[in-house]
Amino acid sequence: MMAQNIFGKLFHGGNSYWLTRFAILRLLGFVYAVAFLIAAQQIVPLVGEHGLTPANHFFQRVEAHFGSRSAAALQLPSLFWFGISDQGLAIFAWVGFGLSLIVLGGFANAILLGILWAMYMSIIHVGQIWYGYGWETQLLETGFLSIFLCPLLDGRPFPRCRPPLLVIWLFRWLGFRIMIGAGLIKLRGDPCWRDLTCLYYHYETQPIPSPISRYLHFAPHWFHKFGTAWNHFIELIVPWFSFGPRRARHVAGILLVSFQIILIISGNLSFLNYVTIIPFLACFDDTFLRRILPGPIVKRAERAAQESEPSRINNTIALGLSLLVVYLSIAPVANLISERQMMNTSFDRLSLVNTYGAFGAVGKERDEIIFEGTDDANITGDTKWKEYEFKAKPGNPDLRPPFIAPYQPRIDWQIWFAAMGSPAEYPWTLHFVWKLLHNDPGTLSLLG
Length: 448
Prior knowledge:
By secondary structure, this protein is mostly helical. The protein has 21 helices and four strands. Helix 2 (18-47) packs antiparallel against helix 5 (86-105) and helix 8 (165-187) crosses helix 12.
């Protein structure tokens, strides 16, 4: 009898999360749309046939390493193993963008979300260093869980199928790992996180500052120390309450979401903060969201809840997914408690359950690589050189940094990393210079 009560709560509690599912899927559609738009506009000059790091050459190296095309495809799953071309890359990304808008607009079923997940994984696995960021795998894990929020075919915003409560809990587990991983990597990393001085430097040395970053940088030291302490509180204490009673979850959700909004304002971190908000929405149920969302949407959710029917198939699938996530979480949890914690690491080929973290080290100075060119045919002492400007990366000190997130100019980010290394560590920079010398249209399209 006790077991029946437990499973009854697990499987039938989803009736309280219709608006939660609605909000999660709409925000997921937005993030997918941004991610595919970035790919549509940048992937060809980055990894196309004549790109900075051509994908066909990369695939050849992967195939040679694993000994065969099939073995390589198993280790690095991507639809582009069936064929890759510049036109194919562009069309693929634009199709993904279009499908994402459908999800954003309110239509989402398991098939559509599964297609988007497979498409974006294909882009990540062909994207090489340009797609080596933690939010890429975070989007994959988030997108994978979202597949199981929906019925197989019914794509209406409020289908008859109840949101599986087990999947809602898996979103909370994802949000918990994201924040705890980010908090622990800081405490184990740069000493400035422990003496509360990291924000003395962060706003200036982060990859792409925002217009607000300058004002934050010149704030008093007590403000920076408070901000660092608040960061530790949000990342290491608050996530535990996402598994607590309803009011505790609501407070945790408000704090976690508002923290991400502050990060959105203070810097340009691509779509990281937007995709991070998605699992935090699972802290809220319909009793909370009905106060925020428009009345017509709330009424549709209430009507769907009244007409809904339990699904043995969906409940069984949700239970199977939960067991899979528990098993795949063993390695990430072991990594979290390890003194040699790695951040932004996948432990399976499909990036189903990963470990996350950000800014374990904070730069104390900002170095920039300056690229210059000239229109003069002959180089003399009087040659006038002009600096190449990037779309968002700081260059000309007279120009104010833009608000550009959730969009990500990927070459701007990689130049930020390259400035902390050498051409031997970032060999693509030499190819980049060669492209500039030849006025390559694709490469120039990546610049400001």
